[in-house]
């Protein structure tokens, strides 16, 4: 019983009516308090003005007899006058001083009004009214005697404690009046709110409580009596319309809850439910099944270059193709994005798994036409089996996902079976990804420098800035973290750090009268950043004069993503003074067509073609001839032997780079080895560097 009463009390306290009364009371108190403060301020002002007027009247009353007694030196008259002032309650003392400031007569009252500690807090507002004085003037003959008619002054001391007490009494009355007024207002407002708002809302709430959630559109909420128009009528109408829409949405959701809206395939929820059902059946029948985790290769490139509509069209075509090609014991669903899952039952050996994986790859590899453009696709597949690779849905999906990433790391269009070793690799990858996000802030990156030497006279004409990542004095290979950085877009801020660090070094050397060109690699991911040109412009403007010594090396394959955009980008970069080099030339989509269209400065021969010189020099010779015809400079990277150097120099290569001269060095080591005592003017440097 006590618990029920407690619950009922809590319900009432938290009801809208009580909260309205509570909040109304606080609002009324706040407003009343504000008004009260204003009243107090006006009251202070009024009492001060009234006190000053009273004091002036008292001085006016005593001025004439005080002046007469001072002129005639009549002590009796003076005493009578001052004694008469003491009869006034607010006068504490009075005094008549003669012209020479001597005390002629003075009267005091004993028993000053005593204030409480509370009243004393307000005394400061009136304590300046404690003393008032009036000059006393004599007859005209006083002017002849003294030069003016002032013969003395009347000084009256007033009881400001009495003024303070009267003020405190008035504000106390005003305070309690304000409190009572505010409370009454809150109660009246609460009654009004309850009658015209709370009670009708409760009626609407009870009506909504009786609505069947499984079929909300059947029963409509009635409008409370007396509210056929107005806000509550509008609210009920909206509720009824919402119930109808909710019923329609519920029916649509029942249909779509287990289907991917784009492809019509089972979605994540249904895939997980089917996997749980498969696990239950497999446990009972002691059977096995496998899941295939599919991820399309380079799907983001299709989205970026052809648009998301084309990407969606591709997903729909692949979904349909997979459905039509899978055997009866296999089902496909879409997890999201470009990820699909295939569940294949009664697969008990690797041969069957392999055959299905190859069949899926072949299906995905079929060319599709998007916007009149033939697109070839591929995917990476990770395979996990129950119960070998997991006894629950999450572990099977996770292990298949890990196997898929392992397949993707081996190249495109591959499949891979899960192996426990992959978990360690996945954890290592995750650790690198996590640390990578903090590397810039912790200043863990360094720019190593590899010299570029003139093929003619073997003098240093430039260098390439190569990023290195150092954690606890351990250098992590770029081959380990650059692919991860590109995948999670961290390559964009890392790339800007490389560009800014290169500019900082160039500017530092320029202050030492050292003019040397530096090249840095620019990721194709960074070229797709819409802020790329603006950010580069800001960096080179920050380090004035460095742009002409800066060169961007861009891989040949990245040019094919959006050639028109790249062409415009190169033009703007060269306007800034930045040189453009094609890195790894000959490994991608080499063609005279795009070389003639692009604003380029340098072709860089890939190390894979340099390594076989002089035994096999057909491709390097062709590249050198092509560069000569187009008026482009050439750089050979990966030069390691004297024979390679001689052949390249004899066949017109301009610049040599490789371990034959030096491995990439920290800045200090590079400067000590190649820039010590180097001083040359800007013009000579530019002519040599080309």
From TrEMBL:
One BP annotation, GO: signal transduction
Transmembrane segments: 20-44, 173-193
GO MF terms held by the record: cyclic-guanylate-specific phosphodiesterase activity
Domain EAL: start-end pairs: 429-678
One Pfam short name: EAL
Listed GO CC annotations: membrane
The keyword Membrane is annotated on this UniProt entry: yes
Record-annotated GGDEF domain positions: 287-420
Keywords: Membrane, Transmembrane, Transmembrane helix
Keyword Ribonucleoprotein: no
Cofactor(s) required for function per UniProt: Mg(2+)
Domain HAMP span(s) in chain numbering: 195-251
Entries under Gene3D superfamilies matching the protein: 3.30.70.270, 6.10.340.10, EAL domain (3.20.20.450)
SUPFAM superfamilies: EAL domain-like, Nucleotide cyclase
Stated name of the protein: EAL domain-containing protein
Species in which this protein is naturally found: Aliikangiella coralliicola
């Amino acid at each position: 019983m006590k618990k029920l009463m407690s619950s009922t009390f809590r319900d009432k306290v938290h009801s809208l009516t009580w909260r309205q009364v509570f909040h109304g009371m606080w609002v009324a108190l706040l407003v009343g308090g504000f008004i009260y403060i204003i009243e107090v301020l006006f009251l202070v002002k009024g009492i001060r003005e009234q006190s000053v007027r009273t004091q002036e009247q008292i001085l006016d009353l005593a001025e004439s007899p005080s002046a007469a007694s001072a002129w005639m030196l009549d002590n009796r008259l003076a005493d009578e006058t001052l004694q008469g002032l003491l009869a006034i309650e607010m006068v504490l003392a009075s005094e008549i001083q003669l012209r020479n400031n001597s005390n002629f007569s003075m009267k005091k009252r004993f028993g000053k009004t005593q204030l409480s500690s509370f009243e004393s807090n307000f005394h400061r507002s009136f304590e300046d009214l404690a003393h008032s004085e009036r000059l006393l003037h004599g007859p005209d003959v006083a002017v002849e005697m003294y030069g003016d008619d002032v013969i003395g002054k009347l000084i009256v001391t007033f009881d400001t404690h009495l003024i303070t007490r009267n003020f405190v009494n008035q504000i106390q009355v005003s305070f309690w009046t304000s409190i009572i007024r505010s409370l009454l207002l809150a109660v009246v407002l609460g009654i009004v709110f309850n009658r015209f708002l709370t009670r009708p809302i409760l009626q609407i709430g009870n009506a909504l409580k009786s609505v069947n959630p499984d079929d909300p559109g059947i029963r409509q909420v009635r409008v409370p009596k007396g509210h056929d128009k107005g806000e509550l009528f509008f609210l009920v109408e909206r509720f009824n319309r919402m119930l109808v829409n909710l019923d329609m949405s519920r029916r649509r959701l029942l249909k779509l809850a287990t289907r991917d809206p784009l492809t019509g395939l089972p979605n994540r929820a249904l895939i997980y439910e089917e996997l749980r059902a498969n696990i239950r059946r497999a446990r009972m029948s002691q059977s096995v099944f496998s899941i295939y985790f599919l991820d399309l290769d380079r799907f983001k490139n299709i989205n970026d270059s052809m648009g998301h509509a084309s990407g969606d069209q591709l997903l729909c075509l692949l979904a349909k193709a997979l459905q039509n090609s899978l055997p009866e014991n296999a089902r496909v669903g879409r997890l999201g994005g470009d990820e699909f899952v295939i569940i294949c039952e009664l697969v008990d050996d690797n041969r069957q798994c392999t055959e299905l994986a190859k069949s899926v790859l072949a299906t995905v590899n079929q060319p599709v036409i998007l916007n009149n453009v033939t697109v070839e696709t591929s995917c990476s597949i990770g395979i996990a089996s129950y119960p070998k690779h997991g006894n629950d849905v999450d572990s099977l999906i996770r292990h298949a996902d890990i196997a898929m990433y392992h397949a993707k790391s081996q190249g495109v269009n591959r499949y891979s079976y899960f192996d426990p070793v992959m978990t360690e690799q996945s954890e290592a990858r995750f650790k690198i990804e996590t640390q990578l996000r903090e590397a810039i802030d912790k200043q863990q990156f360094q720019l190593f420098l590899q010299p570029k030497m003139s093929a003619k006279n073997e003098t240093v004409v430039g260098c390439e800035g190569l990023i290195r990542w150092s954690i606890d004095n351990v250098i992590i290979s770029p081959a380990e973290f650059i692919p991860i950085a590109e995948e999670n877009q961290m390559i964009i801020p890392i790339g800007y750090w490389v560009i800014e660090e290169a500019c900082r070094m160039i500017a530092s050397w320029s202050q030492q009268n050292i003019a040397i060109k530096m090249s840095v690699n620019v990721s194709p991911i960074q070229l797709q950043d819409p802020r790329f040109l603006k950010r580069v412009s800001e960096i080179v403007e920050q380090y004035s004069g460095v742009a002409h010594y800066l060169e961007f090396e861009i891989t040949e394959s990245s040019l094919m993503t959006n050639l028109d955009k790249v062409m415009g980008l190169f033009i703007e970069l060269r306007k800034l003074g930045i040189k453009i080099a094609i890195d790894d030339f000959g490994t991608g989509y080499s063609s005279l067509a795009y070389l003639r269209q692009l604003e380029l400065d340098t072709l860089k021969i890939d190390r894979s073609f340099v390594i076989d010189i002089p035994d096999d020099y057909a491709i390097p010779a062709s590249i050198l001839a092509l560069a000569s015809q187009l008026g482009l400079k050439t750089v050979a990277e990966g030069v390691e032997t004297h024979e390679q150097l001689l052949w390249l120099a004899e066949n017109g290569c301009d610049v040599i780079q490789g371990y034959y001269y030096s491995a990439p060095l920290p800045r200090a080591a590079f400067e000590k080895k190649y820039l010590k005592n180097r001083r040359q003017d800007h013009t000579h440097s530019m002519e040599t560097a080309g």
